[in-house]
Amino acid sequence: MNEVEQAQKQQFLGFSAAWDKYMADYESTAYMSLERLKEQHGKEFAAFQEKLRSQIPKSKASRELLELRRKQEALAKMGKYEEAFKIKEDADQLEEWELARQASQVGESARRQEQRLRQQQSKALAALLKRIQRDRGEQIRHRQMDSQRLIQRNKNLKVDLAKKQHLEFQRAEAAIKSIMAQPEHAQKLLDENDPAFVARSAAMGELPALGKIKWRGPCLPENYRPPGGISKGNFKGTGAVQTVAIAQMSASGNDNFA
Questions:
Q1: What is the pLDDT of residues 139-196, one digit of tens each?
Q2: 235: helix, coil or strand?
């Protein structure tokens, strides 16, 4: 039981170490996925800003501003420089206001586009985080299930082992009681029978009767016939072979044979 418990302890340590490594690899992969997405978002935003700079619309004068500039030029040609100067001041102020308005419109448009891009990137990042969290939770559930199965399997193994050991103890106790109750009978059985048979019988709680089963040690099969025609000390040759054998044994001076 101690060996089983030690083996199960080592098995569970190995199980935990394998899962810890798997989860560490998973977290590393998840972190790299987040970093790649952030890098991609950074490149997208830089390309967006470059696109905005390259698409700045040219300022377009309004009809009122064009009319003021036309009057300014006409007065200047007529030599009315004082009136032309006043018209120029009005036109400059109007042009400055129109440029500021156009810049504000361009900036607002860029801000809205940037906000949309940021929202898209934020949604993509949130979706990746949600997927990572879902997968992490799924892996944790798998680990818990595997751990519970391993614990239950080891528990069942210990229960089966305990039952087996209890049965062995009962059989050993029965054998001891049987032998102690009939020591002389048990000794005769051991002398006359196969010890393994006697041990099995004692373990079942009863000793066999004397003379029932004899111990047969290693021997030749009953139907074994040795070569040369001799079996159990008798010669079984026939015909000329038997005559020649008898003559040879007689010539050798075997009086016992005669």
A1: 999 999 999 999 999 999 999 999 999 988 887 787 777 777 777 877 777 777 777 7
A2: strand
Cross-strand pairs, 124: none
Length of the chain measured in residues: 258
Q: Show the tokens assigned to 41.
A: 């978002």
Dihedral of the CA atoms 89, 91, 97, 101 (nearest 10)?
-170
Q: Taking the CB of residue 257, how many other CB atoms lie within 10 A of it?
A: 9
Range 51-90 burial, b when 16+ CB lie within 10 A, else e: eeeeeeeeeeeeeebeebbebbeebeeeeeeeebeebbee
Half-sphere exposure of 229 (CA within 13 A, CB side): 8
User: pLDDT tens digits for 67-82?
Assistant: 777 877 887 777 777 8
Rounded CA-CA distance 204/172 in Å is 9
Cα 162 versus chain centre, distance: 31
What residue type is assigned to position 143 of the chain?
A: R
Contact between 94 and 65 under an 8 Å Cβ cutoff? The reply is: yes
List C-alpha distances in Å: 168 to 94, 101, 172, 186, 197. Answer: 110, 99, 6, 20, 17
d(CA 148, CA 142): 10
Paired tokens of 74: 């006409």
- What does the DSSP assignment read for 34-56? HHHHHHHHHHHHHHHHHHHHHTP
